[in-house]
């Protein structure tokens, strides 16, 4: 029988069955099968088609939008938390909740993404869901104080609700923004060849820095004295408006960049490749004549990596069965404890580097507002002390903008 397939229509992440012609080969003879299948692996990875530069740039737009919003969060979350009345001893703990949730849920959700059978593909449904959560989180932490002030009139209750809503928004946004990076990278790896993956990652790094620079630049401008600031109500509402518009536009471009084949289609295509050839009469032969054309159902034999003949290589695990293995928190911890020493050193360096970077980035604008400019985030919002604090935060955004520009250049 002949197994043929147009490989260019299949997903690059799919493990394909190599087209082989077994006509004239005695499938019950191990010697003939071994001779025929020598140097012809049954299971093989098919290299995806080359992606254009434009498509890879479109795919990288998600990182631009994500980092734009991330820059706004890094610059303004601490000032916003302090301005709604959160005690100094607690505001750093807000940043702890999201990483803990991510460590617990990431292997579970990541494994669920690998098994997603949506018509949109495996990755895009999760990118859309996390994107919606990011927008909701931004809505809560940048507008929570204003919404609570309009609804709740009692001062003590107003402060409590403002703190709760702002904290919820921060945790929701931070969790989603951290987590969305995984499906975006997996999406790139699923649809690109090795060379395109390298190019795509370079574009990702470049647009990450560029998006962060423009996000910090947006925060560095004093929008309160502009026409747009007076129209929308406050500086935070202007920043929220730009963040949502930029993120929605660029995440939409990302989702339309490179087609993603649904997992359901991948599995069905692979199943078709394994079907034995049958006689099709289309009604032109009567039943008695057609009975002679019936064949016994059998599986073509091949040679496994161990040299043993088998039915489509039982010793080589079926790729459709391989995807059934799911990552859990237990398996993640086991992998961390048993990883090779060189990987352990790499992870330790990664941990130390990010710890130092985040300690500087997340509190830099607050440091500028309180220590350098001697402002007070707890002062009334129309007081000189609070306005001085806001001015220090804006100057801090300029510093972070310069950092992001150089990061983009280095990429």
Automatic annotation (TrEMBL):
GO terms for cellular component: membrane. It is found in: Membrane. CDD domains: MFS_SLC45_SUC (cd17313). It is a multi-pass membrane protein. It comes from the Eukaryota. GO terms for molecular function: sucrose:proton symporter activity. Keywords: Membrane, Transmembrane, Transmembrane helix, Transport. The chain crosses the membrane at residues 68-86, 92-113, 125-142, 162-180, 201-218, 238-256, 343-364. Its main location: membrane. This is Solute carrier family 45 member 2. It comes from Latimeria chalumnae.
């Amino acid at each position: 029988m002949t197994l043929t397939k147009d490989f260019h229509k299949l997903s690059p992440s799919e493990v394909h069955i190599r087209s082989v012609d077994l006509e004239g080969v005695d499938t019950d003879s191990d010697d003939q099968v071994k001779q025929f299948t020598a140097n012809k692996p049954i299971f093989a990875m098919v290299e995806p088609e080359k992606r254009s530069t434009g498509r890879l740039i479109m795919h990288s737009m998600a990182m631009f939008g994500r980092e734009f919003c991330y820059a706004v969060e890094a610059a303004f979350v601490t000032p916003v938390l302090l301005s709604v009345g959160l005690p100094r001893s607690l505001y750093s703990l807000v940043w702890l909740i999201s990483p803990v949730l991510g460590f617990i849920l990431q292997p579970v959700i990541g494994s669920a993404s690998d098994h997603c059978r949506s018509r949109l593909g495996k990755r895009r449904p999760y990118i859309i869901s996390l994107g919606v959560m990011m927008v909701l989180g931004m809505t809560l932490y940048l507008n929570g104080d204003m919404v609570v002030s309009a609804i709740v009139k009692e001062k003590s209750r107003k402060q409590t609700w403002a703190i709760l809503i702002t904290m919820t928004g921060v945790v929701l946004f931070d969790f989603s923004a951290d987590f969305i990076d995984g499906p975006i990278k997996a999406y790139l790896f699923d649809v690109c060849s090795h060379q395109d993956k390298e190019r795509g990652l370079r574009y990702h790094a470049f647009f990450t820095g560029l998006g962060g620079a423009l996000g910090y630049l947006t925060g560095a401008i004093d929008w309160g004295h502009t026409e747009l600031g007076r129209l929308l109500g406050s500086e935070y509402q202007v920043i929220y408006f730009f963040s949502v518009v930029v993120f929605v536009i660029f995440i939409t471009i990302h989702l339309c960049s490179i087609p993603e084949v649904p997992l359901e289609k991948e599995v069905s295509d692979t199943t078709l490749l394994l079907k034995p050839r049958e006689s099709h009469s289309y009604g032109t032969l009567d039943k008695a004549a057609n009975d002679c054309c019936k064949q016994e159902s059998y599986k073509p034999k091949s040679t496994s990596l161990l040299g043993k003949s088998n039915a489509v290589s039982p010793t080589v695990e079926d790729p459709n069965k391989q995807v059934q293995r799911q990552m859990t928190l237990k398996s993640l911890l086991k992998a961390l404890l048993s990883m090779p020493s060189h990987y352990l050193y790499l992870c330790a360096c990664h941990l130390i580097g990010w710890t130092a970077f985040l300690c500087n980035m997340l509190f830099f604008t607050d440091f500028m507002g309180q220590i350098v400019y001697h402002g007070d985030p707890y002062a009334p919002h129309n007081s000189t002390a609070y306005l001085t604090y806001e001015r220090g935060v804006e100057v801090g955004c300029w510093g972070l903008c310069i950092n992001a520009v150089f990061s983009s250049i280095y990429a």
